[in-house]
Automatic annotation (TrEMBL):
<feature type="transmembrane region" description="Helical">
    <location>
        <begin position="38"/>
        <end position="61"/>
    </location>
</feature>
<keyword id="KW-1133">Transmembrane helix</keyword>
<keyword id="KW-0812">Transmembrane</keyword>
<keyword id="KW-1003">Cell membrane</keyword>
<protein>
    <submittedName>
        <fullName>Lipopolysaccharide assembly LapA domain-containing protein</fullName>
    </submittedName>
</protein>
<dbReference type="Pfam" id="PF06305">
    <property type="entry name" value="LapA_dom"/>
</dbReference>
<feature type="domain" description="Lipopolysaccharide assembly protein A">
    <location>
        <begin position="25"/>
        <end position="78"/>
    </location>
</feature>
<keyword id="KW-0472">Membrane</keyword>
<feature type="transmembrane region" description="Helical">
    <location>
        <begin position="7"/>
        <end position="26"/>
    </location>
</feature>
<dbReference type="InterPro" id="IPR010445">
    <property type="entry name" value="LapA_dom"/>
</dbReference>
Length: 105
């Protein structure tokens, strides 16, 4: 739980620094897209870039639910346990069969 809180506080601090940086840079800049040029305030460019970075990070991050991972893990453990019991039963049957053959000889 503390890890989530620490990540939240760090994220908040980084956001605050970026916002202050953006507010201090309001001069217009020219952006070239190769086929066209756009002139807009640097604050808009910084905020748009920040939002695009956040969206890309969110899309590329591991967004799987931990509950699904635990469920998969439990299912895998259950299957492994069943397999182990099955193998143990096969070993017991083989030993019984082998014991029976030795007694008949």
């Amino acid at each position: 739980m503390k890890s989530k809180q620490a990540r939240f506080v760090i994220g908040l601090l980084i956001t605050l620094v970026v916002v202050i940086f953006a507010i201090l840079n309001v001069d217009p800049v020219t952006i070239s897209f190769g086929f066209t040029r756009i002139k807009l305030p640097l604050i808009v460019l910084i905020i748009v870039t920040l939002l695009l970075g956040a969206i890309i990070t969110m899309l590329l991050s591991n967004s799987g639910n931990k509950k699904d991972d635990k469920k998969l893990s439990r299912t895998a453990q259950k299957q492994f346990s069943n397999l182990k019991v099955s193998n143990d039963n096969q070993i017991v049957d083989a030993l019984k069969e082998n014991k029976g053959k030795k007694q008949t000889k």
